């Protein structure tokens, strides 16, 4: 069974061909770099770039997989959550392929895709046991789900405000590190002292298992306002203008010790919040394993801390390539739907706020 999947929910145009749920025959990701200078994704620009990229990206994925249209059993596409204009580009193209080639169309929830990114890769080395605790941490989400056998999801907790990746992106923007913020803070954090700045974890009213990152972001803002960072921020912006992707050494040359300490402390606080909540929830549901996925799962500090956690259950991460947005994870999530013949029709449309579980 082969599925072609298309993903265009945010600022990556991606296509992949996956065979039998776990064998990636091709996975092509075109990242949009034009958002870097704006410090975040500009929706209108994103849609236009998806329009330019979607046809060549799908053609490349088909060619690299050695597939002809007749080799495919279905075409899958991300239906939400995400930016409506971006989602629509992938959806329209997937519908056109479905109609023209007579292939069933499968609508996939992007968050379910992130969870399947891990299942796809772990299948080769371990038998995943249920219930599992899934933490999806990306630019748009910081959600905990209980996942039962047969891919039944229950939402256990989520961020009340900013997603973890969003907090990384906002802190990076504030301090002149450009967009996306996660990778650069991840690279610089080991050069600072994680205990230099103490941030107080947010207290949750209502569901105590929810998370909040906006207070942390405000604390970073206050910290920076209390100092004169204008010169170092200007130096970093000049560096970014000259080099789209500066090296660690180049960043270190324009980032004083105190700011490195701030980045390390910020990251330490985010990781602490995520993993302490993961520990509590894993006990609560009797989880047999913990799956961490989404763009922030690429974070080296989070991976190290999770490995040292000693939860008594295995912790699985996707490889870095499958942590951030890609279409292989969308194809993997589509397989159970193909088996159930859970197909969408040509009325399928984008759902910006699509949820995985109430
Ligand atoms: O899953 P993803 O590619 O797109 C969404 O669905 O949002 O996640 C993108 C987010 C961005 O906020 C980015 O800053 C963050 O993931 N990110 C990271 C790292 N790599 C990407 N955050 C922390 N550490 C990283 N290494
Ligand atoms: Zn994502």
- Tell me the series of helices and strands, N- to C-terminal: EEEHEHEHEEEHHHHHHEHEHH
Described by strand count, sense and barrel closure, the largest sheet is: 5 strands, mixed
What is the helix content?
40-55%
N- to C-terminal distance: 31 Å
Instruction: Please give the radius of gyration in angstroms.
Output: 20 Å
Strand content: 15-25%
* Mean pLDDT across every amino acid position: 95
Ligands and ions found: 5'-O-[(R)-(carboxyoxy)(hydroxy)phosphoryl]adenosine, zinc ion
Q: Any overview of this molecule?
A:
The chain is of the alpha/beta class and 358 residues long. 44% of the residues lie in helices and 17% in strands. The protein is built from twelve helices and ten strands. The protein has a five-stranded mixed sheet with strand order 3-2-1-4-5, with helices on both faces. A five-stranded mixed sheet has the order 8-7-6-9-10, with helices on both faces. β4, α2 and β5 form a beta-alpha-beta unit. α1 runs parallel beside α2, α4 runs parallel beside α6 and α9 packs across α10. The longest helix is centred in the C-terminal third of the chain and has 29 residues. The protein is globular and about 60 Å long. The two termini are 31 Å apart. The model has no long low-confidence stretch (mean pLDDT 95). The site of zinc ion (ZN) has 6 residues, from α3.
Topology:
Blueprint: E1 2-7, E2 12-19, E3 23-31, H1 43-65, E4 74-80, H2 84-101, E5 105-109, H3 110-122, E6 132-137, E7 142-148, E8 152-158, H4 164-174, H5 181-188, H6 214-225, H7 230-242, H8 248-253, H9 257-285, E9 289-293, H10 300-307, E10 315-316, H11 320-323, H12 328-340
Parallel strand pairs: 1-4, 4-5, 6-9, 9-10
Antiparallel strand pairs: 1-2, 2-3, 6-7, 7-8
């Amino acid at each position: 069974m082969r599925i072609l999947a298309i993903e265009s929910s945010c600022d990556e145009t991606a296509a992949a061909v996956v065979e039998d749920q776990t064998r990636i025959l091709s996975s092509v990701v075109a990242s949009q770099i034009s958002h870097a200078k704006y410090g975040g994704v500009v929706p209108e620009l994103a849609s236009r770039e998806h329009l330019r990229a979607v046809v060549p990206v799908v053609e490349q994925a088909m060619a690299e997989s050695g597939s002809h249209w007749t080799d495919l059993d279905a075409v899958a596409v991300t239906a939400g959550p995400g930016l409506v204009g971006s989602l629509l580009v992938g959806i329209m193209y997937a519908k056109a392929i479905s109609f023209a080639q007579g292939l069933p169309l499968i609508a996939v929830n992007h968050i379910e895709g992130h969870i399947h990114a891990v299942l796809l890769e772990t299948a080769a080395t371990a038998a995943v046991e249920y219930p599992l605790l899934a933490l999806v941490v990306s630019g748009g989400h910081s959600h905990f789900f209980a996942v039962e056998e047969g891919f039944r999801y229950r939402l256990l907790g989520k961020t009340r405000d900013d997603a973890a990746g969003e907090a990384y992106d906002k802190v990076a923007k504030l301090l002149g590190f450009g967009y996306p913020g996660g990778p650069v803070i991840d690279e610089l954090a080991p050069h600072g002292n994680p205990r230099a700045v103490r941030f107080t974890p947010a207290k949750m009213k209502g569901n105590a298992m929810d998370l909040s990152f906006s207070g942390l972001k405000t604390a970073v803002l206050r910290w920076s306002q209390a100092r004169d960072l204008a010169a170092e921020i200007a130096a970093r912006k000049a560096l970014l203008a000259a080099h789209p992707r500066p090296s660690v050494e180049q960043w270190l040359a324009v980032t004083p010790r105190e700011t490195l300490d701030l980045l390390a402390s910020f990251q330490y606080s985010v990781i602490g919040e995520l993993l302490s909540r993961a520990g509590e929830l894993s006990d609560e549901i009797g989880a047999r394993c913990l799956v961490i996925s989404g763009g922030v799962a690429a974070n080296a500090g989070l991976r190290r801390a999770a490995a040292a956690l000693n939860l008594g259950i295995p912790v699985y991460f996707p490889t870095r390539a499958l942590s951030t947005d890609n279409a292989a994870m969308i194809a993997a999530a589509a397989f159970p739907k193909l088996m159930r013949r859970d197909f969408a029709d040509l009325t399928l449309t984008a759902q910006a706020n699509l949820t995985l579980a109430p």
